[in-house]
Amino acid sequence: MNPVRMFCVVLAFVATSLWAQKPPGSPAPAPYRPAARHATLTFTVEVTDKAGHPVSGLQQGDFTLLDNKSPSPIEGFVAHTPGLSSPESTVIVFDMVNMGFGGDSIARTQIMNLLRNPASRLVYPVSLLLLTDAGVKPLGKAADNPQTILAALNTEEGQLRNIGRSAGFWGAAEREETAINALDLLARAMARMPGRKLLIWIGPGWPIFDNPRVTYTDSQLHQIFAETVALSNEMTQARVTLYDVDPLGSWDAGSFRTFLWQSFTKPVQRWDKAQSGNLALQVLAVQSGGLVLNSSNDVAGEVNTCAQDGAAWYTITFAPQTSEKPDTWRSVEVRVNQPGLIVRTRPGYYAEP
Fold first, then answer.
1. Helices marked H in 239-340 — which ranges?
2. Which residue among 11, 111, 192, 308 has the highest number of C-beta atoms inside a 10 angstrom radius?
3. Residue 65: beta bridge partners?
4. Taking a C-beta distance cutoff of 8 angstroms, is the pair 183, 231 a contact?
């Protein structure tokens, strides 16, 4: 079976399984999963000009990789262009748990307009998933044909949320848990498949508990750190680039939550420094080399901006360093020797003994 088709089949299976799982009634930390040490790591690298347009045609000699600020040999290099790249697909998630009907209506209408537009930059096949209180449900099957996707959007209706904002702290915690669990399981499914994936998450993100009245036990901090490490490792291995598109755009631009996540973009290096914000959707997106787009009402244009990353990109493979302690953060910087270009990639990795 074609690797792209295999990915779509597995993704559909995982989404169906998630749909059948009802989230627990109260928040519970995810179990600790020890990280595996890999002989090599492959990072997806986006290079754009100042206007955000992908830059193609660069060679391995144009790149320098720094591991903890020290030069590290590039052991593998591939320049990707459409039609000649490794298997790739796009997954769009409508987050009804955190978005609600207003945002969903805006998002659906504009995604439909995007699918009808022959100039769309969407990378096919495209899978559409709906996240609700009951889990993740696929909207039809992954498809190469925009008309097939349009039909799925037209026939699937939004669903009421059981976890409303009126549910207070525990409702917010459950919404966070539902969304993070869904992202975690999708990342693990994608990690088993070859090629790069663009994961476009349509929604405002989930609650960030940055409040002095919210305190965590040491056990909870260990779990937050463990889940942060696990998601980072899984998304790296899966070669997932995550994007957050907020359908409310400028209508919600003054909200505190639209910029609160910026305080957590620095990777967490110790369990006792872990915070809820380390698992914020926007933080995970930026750390995957993706984008956070929350200032425009043009959802179709913002999704097109995300999809543009599929036009040209690079993969760099290198040997990660070992560490004396598990889950030791090491920063990675990728530089290009041509001025005026912008590089986006993962900021590093967690080294293992």
1. 257-260, 281-287, 299-307
2. 111
3. 334
4. yes
Radius of gyration of the chain, Cα coordinates, nearest whole angstrom: 19
- In a 3-state reduction of DSSP, which class is residue 52? coil
> Which architecture characterizes domain 3-30+85-310 according to CATH?
3-Layer(aba) Sandwich (3.40)
What are the domain boundaries of the chain?
3-30+85-310, 40-81+312-353
Secondary structure letter of residue 338 according to DSSP = S
Per-residue exposure over 241-274, b if at least 16 CB sit within 10 Å of its own CB, e if not: bbbbbbbbbeebeeeebbebbeebbebbeebeeb
Average pLDDT, the chain: 83
Q: Which has the minimum average pLDDT: 11-20, 241-250, 251-260?
A: 11-20
Ordered DSSP codes for 157-225: PP---SS-GGGHHHHHHHHHHHHHHHHHHHHHHHHTS-SEEEEEEESS-------TT----HHHHHHHH
> Which residue bears the tokens 């320098």?
64
Cα gap 5→69, rounded to integer Å? 40
* Span 67-98, pLDDT tens digits: 999 999 999 999 998 655 555 789 999 998 88
- What tokens appear for 325 in the block? 């302690």
DSSP 72: -
Q: Say which DSSP state 143 is in.
A: B
Structure tokens at 297: 């009402």
User: How much is the pLDDT for 297?
Assistant: 82
Q: Which two tokens stand for residue 13?
A: 């299976």
Q: For residue 315, what pLDDT is reported? A: 95
CA 186 – CA 92 distance, rounded (Å): 12
Which secondary structure element, helix H or strand E, spans residue 329, and what is its range?
strand 328-336
| CA–CA dist 11, 140 (Å, integer) | 12
Quickly tell me which residue has 């790591």 as its tokens. Answer: 41
Please state, in angstroms and rounded to a whole number, the distance separating the CA atoms of residues 301 and 79.
26
Classify each residue of 196-215 as buried b or exposed e, where b means 16 or more C-beta atoms within 10 Å of its C-beta: bbbbbbbbbbbbbebeeeee
- Largest pairwise CA distance in the chain: 56
